[in-house]
Amino acid sequence: MTTYQIAALGRGGARWSRLRRLTRGRGVLVVACAVVAVAVLAALFAPLLAPYDPDAVDPAAVYQGSSAAHWLGTDDTGRDILSRLLYGARPSLLAPAAVTLTAGLGGTVLAVSAAWLGGWYDRLVSALLDIVFGFPGLVLAVVAAAVFGAGLQVAVVTLSLAYLPYIGRVVRSAALRERNLPYVSALRMLGMSGRRICLRHLTPNLLPLVLVQVATSFGYALLDVAAFSFIGLGAQPPTAEWGLMVANGSTGILAGRAEQSLYAGAVIVVFVIACSLLGGGLSRQLLGDDR
Amino acid sequence: MTGSPPLLVVDDLRVDLPTRDGMRRVIHRADLTVPAGTAVALVGESGSGKSMTARAVLRLLPSRARTTGSVRFDGSEVTTLGAAGLRRLRAHDVAMVFQDPRAHINPVRTVGDFLTEALITTRGVRPRAAEAKVTALLREVGIADASRRMRQRPPELSGGLLQRVMITAALAGEPRLLIADEPTTALDVTTQAEVMAIIDEARAERGLAMLFITHDLALAAAVCDRIAVMYAGGVVEELPARHLHERAAHPYTRALLASRPDPAATAEPLRAVPGRPLSAFETGPGCAFAPRCAHAQDLCHTERPSLSPAGEGLAACHFPAADARVTPQPGARSTPHGR
């Protein structure tokens, strides 16, 4: 073995031991990470992984159980359920991602500006956040669907609005606390502008909290998007989407074919639990609290 | 003092802070003068309004605080200054060293970022030049491995080192007035003396004026030219530091001096100023110290005295004491510690 190879081995060994140290005692978190990673990879590589076209109807293969040809069976029109679950990961993940990122960004901008500027602006923003907070997302979705029509985009916009106060309220109270920390007055004393202090010091220091909030909300947003699709306010047929698949499968249940609803439901449940665990883990790592 | 016009004049400053029970007065009458190049100590117990006065001077009070009276820096009024003017004043003319450096430096940014950011953003110094300047300053305040420290973050530094960083930040702006708010209180005893020496030396070298806030009478007398004593939100006496022990005229100052412990005698119990210190909002129409004063007469309870010449300085007292040396009583109690 050359010294170069030994050195390379040493580096590799160090990397592995670091990984071991990082994961020790966090088995649940590792599994949660893996679940999320698998879902994301499925969404990214659905065309490569899926054995069938998710929308290909096959009248000759309706309601088939698991087989070598269709691992998870087929639905009421003979579409391959596994392929639909893989392709379904795309809208099912993208929609809540859009929701939490929009709510995270909007909530942070509103919350930090309100906490920093104070006065009537803060009172106005707080009141608006409280008002939106008072409406269940589902009620908002029904109203939005009535006005703009049902669809995934409308659902995403509505949910972004509904999630705004969840992030905004938490970030605002943290920003208020941060604003009163002594280092902020020390920066003022150095003659720095309020804008710079707010944008370059206060906001970056709040980002770990925002990240935790976004991560924690992601699972719930996914559940809500699925629920919207389930009641017909989100993704529309024939889109492959997890919530819609649960709804679609309901006709099969009567025929004794519950597979579609079961599989799609199980995927949603597993993913939401993984997200929740991941959010908690991030919170412990970044904020050091044990919620 | 000297014939030069005073750098900082605080005239009849009154400050009210919002509390749950409405506005509450915390400073009821602060008069203070800091001539250029002079060190003035502001001494008093906890809650006497020392720090509040300093914060009012720099407009660092909570936004809903109400301030009346006048604060003039180099002839121009500070209380009515706009945002830009205030930034200019803070960036160029007045710097502050805070009590707890760990709380007053953003823990997430490196020491170098903290030190150079203000220079770069408020006075347009190029990053390289700013870095060179603060590195040199860090060496001057006794940090040998300055360039390594610049890359570290505050949690990696000890309290004493961080206070040196804070002093460096204050000096980097080349101010004319340094406000030091109990700069050594949060440090351990051995570091205190070092940090105090650094401040004193830097001040002397640059001819800086200083407003030094402390509860330590002996330290105040040692490093400052003049001493202003605060009680219950007002300045009650102002006199040259060298006359503190012999010529203090206000009964409160004398009581404080008398309550210092005498290291030579240990057997006697410590002697305290009787009663408890009042807050500014608790004071009646008369002298704030009257309820605790051994020499109080009827007039003291009905009419508030204002600062007028007494002894070698000014005293807010109807019956200032004639010259008499105040000796520490055997085993007397030390000055109440404050923040």
Please give a structural write-up.
The complex is a heterodimer of chains A (291) and B (339). Chain A is an all-alpha fold and 291 residues long. Chain A has one domain: MetI-like fold, CATH 1.10.3720. Chain A has 12 helices and no strands. In chain A, α4 runs parallel beside α7 (152-179) and α9 (194-230) runs parallel beside α10 (242-248). The radius of gyration of chain A is 23 Å and the shape is flat. Chain B has 339 residues and is of the alpha/beta class. Chain B has a domain at 102-175. An 8-stranded mixed β-sheet of chain B has the order 6-7-8-3-9-10-12-11, with helices on both faces. Residues 330-339 of chain B have low confidence and may be disordered. Chain A binds chain B through residues 118, 181-183, 185-194, 196, 200-201, 204-205, and chain B through 58, 60, 63, 83, 87-92, 94-96, 98, 100, 103-109, 117-118, 121-122, 166, 169, 173.
Largest sheet of chain A: none
Q: Could you name the CATH class of chain A? A: Mainly Alpha
Most residues in contact: chain pair: A-B, 19 and 29 residues
Strand order of the largest sheet of chain B: 6-7-8-3-9-10-12-11
Q: Return the CATH architecture of chain A.
A: Orthogonal Bundle
The helix fraction of chain A, in percent, is over 70%
Cα gyration radius of chain B (Å) = 21 Å
Q: What overall form of chain A do the CA principal axes indicate?
A: flat
Q: How much helicity do the residues of chain B have?
A: 25-40%
Task: Please describe the biggest sheet of chain B, giving its number of strands, its sense, and whether it closes into a barrel.
Answer: 8 strands, mixed
Order of helices and strands of chain B: EEEHEEHEHHHHHEHEHEEHHHEE
Low-confidence stretches of chain B: 330-339
Q: In whole angstroms, how far apart are the ends of chain B? A: 29 Å
Structural class label of chain A: mainly alpha
| CATH fold call of chain A | MetI-like fold
Q: What fraction of the residues of chain B are assigned to beta strands by DSSP?
A: 15-25%
Order of helices and strands of chain A: HHHHHHHHHHHH
CATH superfamily of chain A: MetI-like
Rg of chain A is: 23 Å
